[in-house]
Write a structure and sequence with these properties.
Blueprint: H1 2-23, E1 27-33, E2 36-41, E3 45-52, E4 55-61, E5 83-87, E6 90-94, E7 99-103, E8 108-113, E9 116-128, E10 131-137, E11 144-148, E12 160-163, E13 181-187, E14 191-195, E15 201-205, E16 212-217, E17 223-228, H2 232-243, E18 257-259, H3 266-278, E19 285-288, H4 314-323, E20 327-332, E21 335-337, H5 343-348, E22 363-365, E23 368-372, H6 378-392, E24 398-401, E25 414-415, E26 418-419, H7 420-423, H8 427-442, E27 450-452, E28 464-466, H9 475-478, H10 481-490, H11 511-521, H12 544-559, H13 561-574, E29 579-580, E30 599-601, E31 605-607, E32 617-621, E33 626-629, E34 635-637, E35 641-645, E36 653-656, E37 660-663, E38 677-683, E39 690-697, E40 712-721, E41 724-732, E42 743-750, E43 758-760, E44 763-764, E45 766-767, E46 778-782, E47 787-794, E48 798-803
Parallel strand pairs: 18-19, 19-20, 20-24, 24-27, 27-28, 38-42, 45-46
Antiparallel strand pairs: 1-2, 2-3, 3-4, 4-17, 5-6, 6-7, 7-8, 8-9, 9-10, 10-16, 11-13, 12-15, 13-14, 14-17, 15-16, 21-23, 22-23, 25-26, 29-30, 30-31, 31-36, 32-35, 33-34, 33-36, 37-38, 39-40, 40-41, 41-48, 42-47, 43-44, 43-48, 46-47
Helix pairs in contact: 6-8, 11-12
Length: 804
């Protein structure tokens, strides 16, 4: 009996083993065609092609399985050559920086950076009638980031997250599903896997099975892209090389916005613009929510034409604003209500998605009975573009695309390329694309400014500026904003920002919370307070103390424009986000990945927003090096956790020793921006012997400034030796229209004792006794702040300054 049981057990084991191999695909053949490796198994075909030196696209194709075009890839036709080698049991397909090992039986793909395994398929590809996807093996110690907007913590391993863009009204400290999901996962093992699939699905980051990363979708493209690099910034650069780089926004987009839900009349809008000027608050944009095309919330969406009773002279209003340096941004939505003035026009143009009978699909949602523009069809695109052309004729400078998840999207809605569930997550992406291309075609000398609430992997290449949706107007709404922006910035969406002050709810003005949120906004990609109107979102409509505190922060935002604009240049060049996580500072310390309280604004600033009432100090984990309290000048040594003091007037901000921070005088509008008067701060510490910085300048308008090299790049360096400090200022680039031929530079060296002399070139400068006496060719020592201030004219390409 024992032997029979033993034989039965062994037989069951071999049957299970056999069934495992029956289920696994077996390699049959391969063919290298140009720079594509085409593989055939007994179940499906696979095509591999390198998209950069560190990234490879993998496309699985199974007979009868519908495929959609790539939405993620910036240029699918761009492919790199790679080397192929064969051994009896495996193939290797490799670029300079990434190697794919193909096991033949069972068929499986593994990815190596050098000799290090970074990622391997587990089951790999699977496809059933209503479910398809991929399975990868996870290593025990790896942490996982990505997947877009979620409030679940920075390390997202152990989560099962929906991939279906969906509104999350009034969210606070927990939200698994939000406006802008991204089907991409970034690992602490320095790889990134992007699933190029727009359909309704899930990504399981070791929730169901702790050692398996699984992507699953109801339909869509069966493709993924693996990227690997030696550092996180280089990994992000691989990602934007493949999915597209963010074009530079217009310079005015870095200014202050007046925005609310919403301005109801032309008179009200004019009054608020005038209020900013009279209260001495800089202003560069005014945003009109849905009242510009209707007198109330419901029944008018889709009109997309001025309500002339409320806005009798929109062209004149916009022109008057423009003369003041204030740009007008209009909200538009993709929904056309059956009660709207354009319904018949949209139906006749065949611009709307269809129902199963082939007619314009209608459904009910909060705003009324509606149809949805089919942005994937040529007819829908042409109709929508016509509206944007009409509105641009009024002088509109910026575009706000709202509800583009789409917020309501019945699964039986049929678009020109597929069902709602197949393309849902790419809807906002395609909408941004048509708007971006339309604006460039119609206004080729202007950079488009496009705010969108939802999109897909690669949406950054259409200039998309996302925000974090209808956040609760509360401390709990403020708390997750750093996490949301950091996660989006890791995957290309570097301009992700929040409605400053919070949007949803709130019946009583919380002054402290409001001030803290708007202080944080200075070190955020876009400065746009926005909220429901029962409490004014605009700082100019609050009490004197609130205005006095925030006026200085808004002006600081304007003074920092050279620094902030340089961050934009770095982002457009390499994908480096403007807001950067602390784990960039020490990539070997994976415990830093979970930090969502502090972040780096560029390389120079370490910011810790205050997210609770009554806070007198914040805990800050300092990276290595020396750090200056921005407000007091106190120096902290890095590699420790400090308690940084704060009060209602001071956002906790530190500056890295060795940083160059260029600043200019604040202006009322960035139309008057100039760097002719430049204040260049250098934060010296004896621990820093060499340092470098840069500043990017162009005309702030031209879409092709980077491609045509119509810009100037200012570079700064410092070398300290005992009691001597040598600084060098240099200028390179072809230049641009309006570029200053000469700059009056005030060089501010922090934490330096009074030198015996200051030399510019070989010329010794004279000392003066007060700041008011400081003129070009002179120096002043501020004993109270331990600062040396040097004023000089910078005209030649290179300028050398020595403090001896």
């Amino acid at each position: 009996m024992y032997i029979q049981k033993k034989i039965k057990t062994v037989l069951v084991f071999f049957l299970l083993l056999a069934s495992h191999f029956v289920q696994a695909a077996i390699y049959q053949s391969h063919h290298l065609q140009g720079n594509q490796l085409q593989l055939q198994t007994d179940e499906y075909s696979v095509v591999l092609s390198f998209k950069s030196e560190g990234s490879v696209e993998v496309v699985y194709q199974k007979a009868g399985l519908k495929q959609l075009p790539s939405f993620a890839l910036a240029a699918p036709e761009q492919q790199l050559a790679a080397m192929l080698s064969e051994q009896p049991q495996q193939l290797e397909f490799a670029s300079k920086d990434l190697k794919v090992r193909i096991d033949k039986a069972p068929f499986r793909l593994s990815y190596y950076r050098g000799n290090e395994l970074v990622l391997a398929e587990e089951k790999g590809f699977f496809a059933h009638e209503t479910l398809r996807g991929f399975r990868f093996a996870l290593q025990d110690d790896e942490k996982l980031l990505g997947t877009g907007q979620r409030v679940v913590g920075m390390d997202r391993r152990g989560q099962r997250l929906p991939l279906y863009n969906k509104a999350s009204y009034g969210y606070t400290t927990e939200a698994q599903q939000m406006y802008f999901g991204l089907p991409a996962v970034l690992s602490s093992k320095k790889y990134l896997v992007l699933f190029d699939n727009s359909a309704n699905g899930f990504v399981d980051l070791g929730k169901t099975e702790k050692d398996v990363l699984q992507f699953e979708a109801a339909a869509g493209r069966t493709s993924y892209i693996v990227m690997a690099a030696a550092t996180y910034p280089k990994l992000i650069e691989q990602y934007v090389t493949v999915t597209g780089k963010q074009p530079l926004p217009p310079r005015w987009a870095f200014g202050n916005f007046a925005s609310r839900f919403g301005y109801r009349t032309e008179a009200e809008t004019r009054a608020i613009v005038d209020k900013f000027a009279s209260e001495d608050f800089p202003l560069d944009a005014v945003v009109l929510d849905l009242y510009w095309f209707g007198p109330d919330i419901q029944g008018h969406m889709g009109n997309l034409a001025w309500d002339k009773k409320a806005f009798p002279n929109p062209k004149g209003m916009i022109s008057d604003f423009k003369a003041k340096g204030v740009n007008t941004i209009l909200i538009t939505e993709p929904f056309v209500l059956s009660t709207s003035k354009r319904w018949d026009e949209a139906v006749q143009a065949n611009a709307l998605a269809q129902d199963l009978a082939g007619k314009a699909k209608t459904f009910d949602f909060y705003f009324g009975n509606t149809g949805l523009v089919d942005v994937f069809s040529t007819q829908g695109t042409a109709w929508f573009e016509g509206i944007y052309n009409e509105l641009a004729d009024y002088g509109v400078a910026g575009w706000w695309g709202d509800l583009g998840e789409p917020e309501v999207h019945p699964s039986d809605t049929i678009h020109s390329i597929g069902t709602a569930d197949e393309i849902h997550n790419a809807y906002g992406h395609r909408w941004a694309e048509l708007l971006y291309q339309n604006r460039l075609a119609q206004q080729p000398t202007q950079r488009p400014m496009i705010m969108m609430r939802s999109g897909f992997a690669g949406s950054q290449r259409f200039g998309m500026i996302p925000w974090t949706g209808d956040v609760s107007r509360s401390w709990d709404g403020l708390k997750p904003q750093v996490e949301l922006s950091l996660q989006m910035g890791l995957l290309g969406m570097a301009y992700t920002h929040s409605d400053l002050g919070g949007f949803a709810g709130g019946e009583v003005f919380d002054k402290e919370m409001y001030i803290r949120w708007l202080q944080y906004g200075v070190f955020q990609p876009v400065y746009r307070p926005h909220a429901q109107e029962q409490i004014a979102p605009e700082p100019v409509l609050h009490d004197k103390e609130t205005k006095d505190i925030l006026r200085e922060y808004v002006k600081l935002r304007y003074r920092m424009l050279p620094y902030n604009y340089t961050l934009a240049y770095q982002n457009s060049s390499t994908g480096m986000p403007l807001m950067r996580p602390l784990f960039f500072e020490n990539e070997a310390d994976t415990s830093l990945i979970t930090n969502k309280d502090s972040y780096l604004w560029g390389d120079a600033f370490l910011v810790t927003p205050v997210t609770a009432a009554g806070v007198k100090s914040v805990s800050v984990k300092l990276p290595q090096g020396a750090w200056f309290d921005y407000w007091t000048g106190k120096v902290y040594q890095g590699g420790q956790t400090i308690q940084q003091p704060t009060d209602l007037t001071t956002l906790p901000v530190l500056v890295r020793a060795g940083s160059f921070v260029p600043m200019v005088p604040a202006v009322q509008s960035l139309k008057d921006y100039s760097s002719r008067q430049l204040e260049l701060h250098y934060y010296h510490d004896q621990s820093v012997t060499t340092a470098r910085g840069q500043m990017y300048e162009d005309d702030g308008v031209s879409p092709d400034s980077l491609q045509s090299r119509q810009y100037e790049l200012l570079s700064f360096s410092a070398m300290a030796n005992h009691n001597n400090l040598a600084l060098e200022l240099n200028r390179t680039g072809l230049g641009y229209a309006g570029m200053p031929k000469q700059r009056e530079v005030t060089l501010v060296v922090h934490q330096w004792v009074k030198p015996a002399k200051v030399l510019v070139g070989s010329q010794s400068l004279k000392w003066v006794n007060s700041e008011s006496e400081l003129v070009a060719g002179a120096a002043w020592f501020d004993e109270a702040k331990q600062q040396v201030r040097v004023k000089l004219n910078w005209e030649q390409v290179k300028l050398k300054v020595a403090l001896q």
